[in-house]
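Checklist before submission:
- one chain only
- standard amino acids only
- sequence pasted in full

Submission:
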Amino acid sequence: MSEAVSRNLNPLGKKGNRLIAILSFLILITLIAPAQAIDYDDGAKYISGWDVGDSGTDEDLFTSAYDGESVFAFGAGGVILQSADKGATWVQLESPATSDLRASDSVEGAIAVVGDGGAAYLRADGSGTWLDISLSPPVDFRGMAMTSATSLVAVGPGGAVWQYSSDTWMQRDSGVSTDLNEVSFLDATLGMIVGDGGTILATDDGGESWEYREAPEGLDADIVALDYYSGIRVYAITDEGHIVKSVGTTSGTAAGYVWELVEIESAGRNTSLGLELSSIDVSSVNKFLVSGPSSYAALSLDGGNIITSQMNPLSSPKDFNHVLFLNLFDAVIVGADGVILFSENAGEDEAVGFFIIDYGDFGQFVDYSKEMLIDGLHATIRIVLFGMVLGFFLGVMLSMMKTAPTTLKNVAQLDRFSIIRMILIPFCIIETAIPFIRLYDKSWSATRISERLRILSSTNTRPLNTLVLRAFGLGILYYGIMLISALAPIVRSLNLDGWEYVYTPIGLISPDGINGELYFGNFLQALLGIALILLGLLFLTTRKFFLKREVRLPFRGITVKWNFWDVRPMNAVATVYTDLFRNTPLLVQFLFIHFGVQFGKLLGDPGAAMLEGETNFFLVYLRDMILADRACVSSIFALGLNSGAYQCETIRGAIAAIPSGQMEAGRSIGLNYMQTMGLVIMPQAIRICIPPMGNEMVNLVLNSSLAMVVGYAELTRKGRLINAVTFQIFWAYGMVLVSYFVVTWTLALLLRHLETKSRIPGLGISGGA
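Returned file contents:
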C-alpha cells in the first residue's frame, strides 16, 4: 500500500528524478563550457584594402598633407612628393629643404611643413613656390598645426612651443619641460598639444597661452599623436598602444577637459593594443585610422571599442609613420623606405569569391547568429553564477543580522567580563586560523579565557553602573559631534538650500563632480557620526531602569511612546541595506555601480593585477574572464547586491518558521547564538526556503539582461547586435527567448530536484508534489 501511495505522489520514481537531474546537469555543463571556435568555410578569401603607390624614392617618409586637390608627402633629406590622383602615382618636387621634414598640415589650400633644425616652409594656395620661414636658433620640430593660411604653431623637445604669425616667430610658454610631440587645432583659436609622460595642453586664444589638462588616471605612456576632430570629440594615441579620448556634449561641455582610456573590446577589454602606435587620423565622430611600426594599420568604426587590424600588401614589414584621411573613405599611409599606400575604402580588407549570406533564409540566419548567441549565453551564465553566490552569502549574513536578538539594552548591560571578551575576539580568531600550533588547547589561551569570562558574565549580578554608562555616552557624543563638524565645510560648499539637503550623501561622496575623486569615507563618517550622537544622547540620559520614552505631540494631546532600548543595531543595519536595494530600480543600480561607483575599475583592475602570473585554472579563468572585464565585474556586483537584499527576506522568513524551541535547545546545551544559528537553525531554514530561493534565482537570470546597459555583451545585447545586422527582429529576439528559456528551465529542474531531496519529512503540506 505504501509503495502505491509513493508511486502516486511521485510517478517518475527515484530513477526518473535521477534522470532529470543528470539531463539538467549535462545541459548546464554544455552551456557553461567554453565555446569552440566554429569555422564557417564560405569560400571567402580576403585581400588587403590598401594598394601600393609608386613613390619613386627610397627615402623615409614621415608626414603627409592634403590641400583639397593634391596629396603631398614629406620625408628624410627634405624630400617632397606630390600626387594628383589620391596617392596612386607620385612625382618628386624640387625641395628647398635639406633636413628631415617631420610634420605638415594644410588649411584653406595652403600647406606648411616643419622639421629638424628649425626647418619650416609655407606654400600658399595655388602657388608652386615654397616660402622659407625657418626658425633661428634652430629647434627640432616634432609637430605642427596651421591656425590660418599664413600662421601656424609648432612644438618640439623640452616643452618648446613656437607660434608663427605675421612673418614672425614667437616663443610661447608651455608651462612644461617635457618633450612635446604633436599639436592639433580645431579652428583659429582652439588647439591642443600632447607630449611625453601623458602631457596634455590646451589653448583657446590661437596658441598664445596654454593651460595644463589632466591625463586619464593610470596613463604614464608618451602621447605621440592626436586629432582635434570636433568640439565634442578629440582622439589621441600613445607609444604603448592606448587610445585616449575626450568627449564633449552638444549641451555645452567642450571636449578636451575630461579624458578617458578607451576599453578596447577587440583587445579583451584592455586599454592598450599591446603594440606601438605612431599616427592617428579621424574622418568622422567614431571612425579613425591608426598606424605604427612593422606595417601596422587598423581601423575603428565605433570610437575605439573595436579596432580591426588590416592586411599588409607589402612583401616585407615596413614602419608606417603617418596616416591621412583625404575624405570619409580615401586614405594614404606613408612610411619607411619611401613606402606609400592608398585606399578608396579606408583600408578595409576586401573579400573576393565570397558567399553572400541570405538573411531571409532561416537556416543561413541561424548559421550566422548561433555563435554570437552562444557567446552571449556564456557571458550571461558567468554573471548569473557569480551573482547567485554573492547574493546567497549576502542573504545568509543579512538574515542572521536581522534576527540577531542583541538590543541597545543588552549593549548597555555589558559588564567588565563581556567587554574583556570583546577585546579577546581577534586573538581567538588568530588561534583558530593556525590550528597546527593548537594554542586554543592551552589553559592560558584567549579561547579558554574567553569561555571562563562568558561563564562569569552570565553569573554576574552587579547592578547597572549608570555613572560609567553616562560617562561613556558623553565620550561617544563628543566624538560623534567632532565627526559631523569635520564634514560641515564640505556640506556648506555644496550650496544646497531647503529640501535639497536630501541629496547631501551624494555630494559628500563626490563633492567635486566628474573632475574629482569619490570619497566614500565621508559618507561612512557621516553615518557613524549620526549614530554615535544618537547613541551618546541615549546613554547620557539613562537611568537605573530602561524605561520607554514618551513624546507629547503639540496637537490633539497625542502621546507617542518608543522604547529606544529595544532597538537592535544589527537589525537596523540590515534593514537599511535591504530597503535601499529593494526600493530602487535595478536598472539604476547597474548604471550607478558601473559608471558612478566604478566597481569594475576599483575591484577588477587590482584583482587582475594581483593574479598576474598565476597558472591555476580557476585563478586564470577568474583573472581573464571575470576581473579583466570591468563591465562583467560591475554586472556581478549589481546582480549580487540586489539579489542579496531579496534573499535576505526569504531566508529570514524561513528562520521565523523554525520553532523557537530549536534555539532554546541549542542554547541549553552550551552553544552561543552564532553557533546555534550556524549548526541548528540555518541548515533547517535553508531547506525550507529552497522553493522561494529558486524563484529568486530564476528572476536573477532574467534580470541579467539589464547588464547590456553597461556595455556587457550578454545574451540580450548579442540579440540586438544580430538584429542590427540582419534586421530580422522576430527571428533574432525569438532565438534570444529560446536561449533564456533553456537556462531558466534547466535551473528550475535542478532546483525542483534539490527541493524534493531536501524536503523535511512531516513539515508542511506537499500537495502531492
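Reviewer check: The longest helix spans residues 362-402.
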